[in-house]
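REVIEWER CHECKLIST
Item 1: Sequence provided? yes
Item 2: Single chain? yes
Item 3: Sequence as submitted:
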Amino acid sequence: MWRLPHVPSSDDLIDNAFKAGSKDGKKARSMGPKKPEKLLTGEIRRVETAAAVLEGDLNAIVKYFPQYEEMSEFHRSLLDLRVNRDKYKMSLATVRWCSERISFLKNKTLRKLKTLKDTEESRTFLGRASSFVKRIRPELNFLQEAKVIIMSFPLLRDVPTLVVAGIPNAGKSTFVKTLTGSNVKVAPYPFTTTEILVGYRKQRYMEYQIIDSPGILDRPMGERNHVELQAVLALRYLADIVLFIIDPEQDITPQLNLMEEIRQGFGLQVVTAANDKGSGTPEGYDPFNATKPEDCERIFKLCFSLK
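Item 4: Structure as written out by the authors:
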């Protein structure tokens, strides 16, 4: 799972920063030798602490959210599909701007406090810092939503990769779960898998990556929804070999059309097998039962030409 920082709401960020500043300010005032110095020391500490909380949370977002240009081609394409790329980049830039403005304002305020010794400067700082944070409320809200989506992106390894493809409800998730033991969701209705899921299989000294991709329908690319397009991305960027699972209980013709589209359109090696659900399998296709470990292991070895 991707590790991303907490994204507070603008109101929570302001409240937390100001409460921390007030607490440290009171503590500093209790340590000063004389009353005027106590007040000034307390306000300096108040500004320093409030600014540290604001900058710390904002800088964590900028630092630990993945930068678009540094992501893999697959993850960039997935972000383009599921998150508004331009809004994502602009939101991170706006958060960085806010942090920089607060840092500049903090330094300016501290200089004034130490030279003018006017404690009202701290209140001015808190008011302006609050206005800066409130201005980025839409960006923080957007990044809260983006975080949930990005954390669902698969973490991938640079190992031989099998992408399991086919129409919805063909048995792809059942195959991956049986083969790898991955905790993938399996249910008897179409589009159960709505995102790319990953499992691993170790064979002798080699590890293999098994991708459970969402189901694709036999229709023009422009008519495919975001769930189907995630499977297309997996085929385009991740697959070394494709296992295309045929569901004999559904119309075979569109499945064969889809298989040929994958074979020709992506230039990939495609191994085809029919998931025997008890009603028989079409001739010419290797039958297997996706619930039986020995069957799934046999098909897996067939895909990678293993003995």
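Item 5: Key structural point noted by reviewer: Residues 186-191 have pLDDT under 50 and may be disordered.
Item 6: Recommendation: ____
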